[in-house]
Amino acid sequence: MKRLITSIAISLTALASVAGNLVILHTNDTHSAIDPDDKGIGGIVRHKVLIDSVRASQPNVLLVDAGDAVQGTLYFTLYDGEVERRLMNELGYDIQILGNHEFDNGMERLAAQWRQLNAQRLSSNYDFRGTPLDSVFKPYAIKEYDGKKIGIIALNLNPEGMIAAHNTVGLRYLDAIKAANALAWYLRNVEHVDAVVAVSHIGYDKSTDNTPSDLEVAAATEDIDIIIGGHSHTLIDPDAPDAPAFRVPNAVGDTVLIAQTGSRGRELGEITLDLSTMQARSRLIPVDSRLDARADSSLEAIIAPYRNGIDTLKKTRIGNLSQDMPAGSDILLNWVADEMLAAARGMVHFDVDLSIVNKGGIRRGLPKGHVTKEEIMTMLPFDNHLVLLEIKGSDLINAFKVMKGRGGDGVSDGFDWRNIDPGRTYMLATIDYLANGGDYMEPLTYATQLYRSEGKLDEILMERIESRHGKSIKYNSAAPRM
């Protein structure tokens, strides 16, 4: 009997020492998508249903956001990040990192919102000393589950060429790969963590000259096990036959798991980490109407007062569109570029040769039928003004090289960008973000600015639509121009 009791005690001790799983739920690039999109997909209330369900069934859950939680709907335009901050606190995020759009309203306003977050705020390769964000962030976090320690770091992109310079004054960027390797080594060898997770907002595979990609970080590391990414809006679905590589070798041949959920909260990412073996697997969970029956009314109550202001703009019709202009389509890109050129020509007393606009500045499509203020404001959500530049042909050629290098942007009808005279001067209409070198358009910074509109681009476009007095917009230039 004594031997049996001893055997049972040993067995219980062995069972108690076996570690379970850590479930990491993650989001990225939700872009203020509080409500479901035009197709009824996504929505933060549905996210809470999934998160609550996982927490109810799993003892170890970590909720992470990889940046760009803001900018893209009127919730941010009208309320400055307050809605997103309140709701992410309600969802109980554990870790949050910065994207580039968190800086859109400047560091002072960013600091005011982020100091109120309940999550741990991480940034491993931004030096904020002497800025409004000084002391807001930590370089890493360590979480412990079933006796196993998990180290977490945060990697951000180089703001130069991506974030408006006046919104990052004093911020010092540190090389992402060097920071990743140094901190991961420290966490492994000094803090003795069992696994290292890098939460990043640098992009899956679209590296630039000054920012590496997740794939490049993975290839250069020895100590990172998982990368939870953002910025490139890459949908990494391990169950899809055409999924991007999500298990990649590191510098010593070990495997790094890379995960990302696309954008706008249409999917919730889930990584299950076996704490005994430190092996991980990932999947995407659809966020759709099947979850509505379990919606949390308390979350709806928080959203309701903010939604009232937005609904007014949704109901304000300003025109009519005779055909669909889907998000990311050439017809939409062409139409915006042509409208910019027409608006610019109406503002000055000299000829304007062309207009250009970046694809990233157009954030949604327009459906056939009534056009509302809300649709135009969310299509062009940034504080961009229309500017006219006097630019040398040689600099314009280099600008088109940048645009062509990323797959082409918007250019107005009738301009032959393949036959620019390098010795001639051109009159160019564009947005001030690009004129100031944003989206890596450094060649435009060598131009002379002749004019800047008082109104923002969305306001200019709404005025042009309203000036048609209800006459339907018919537009059929759908062929790519670059």
Query: Which CATH class of the largest domain is shown?
Result: Alpha Beta
Shape summary: globular
Bin the strand percentage: 15-25%
N- to C-terminal separation?
84 Å
Mean pLDDT equals 94
Q: Which strands sit side by side, in order, in the main sheet?
A: 4-3-2-1-13-14
The radius of gyration computed from the alpha-carbon positions, rounded to a whole number of angstroms, is 25 Å
Helix content: 25-40%
Largest sheet features: 6 strands, mixed
Q: How many independent structural domains?
A: 2
How many β strands by DSSP? 21
InterPro entries: 5'-Nucleotdase_C, 5'-Nucleotdase_C_sf, 5'-Nucleotdase_CS, 5_nucleotidase/apyrase, Calcineurin-like_PHP, Metallo-depent_PP-like
GO molecular function: hydrolase activity, acting on ester bonds; metal ion binding; nucleotide binding
Family: Belongs to the 5'-nucleotidase family.
Protein name: Bifunctional metallophosphatase/5'-nucleotidase
What does this protein structure show overall?
There is one protein chain. With 482 residues, this protein is α/β, with parallel strands linked by helices. It has 2 domains: 20-307, Purple Acid Phosphatase, chain A, domain 2, CATH 3.60.21; 316-466, 5'-Nucleotidase, C-terminal domain (5'-nucleotidase,  domain 2). The protein is built from 13 helices and 21 strands. The strands form 5 sheets. It has a 6-stranded mixed sheet with strand order 4-3-2-1-13-14, covered by helices on one side. A 6-stranded mixed sheet has the order 6-7-9-10-12-11, with helices on one face. Strands 19-16-20-18-21 form a 5-stranded mixed sheet. Helix 9 (330-345) crosses helix 13 (457-466) and helix 10 packs antiparallel against helix 13 (457-466). The longest helix has 18 residues, at 297-314. The protein is globular and about 75 Å long. The protein starts with a helix and ends in a 16-residue tail after the last helix. Residues 1-17 have low confidence and may be disordered.
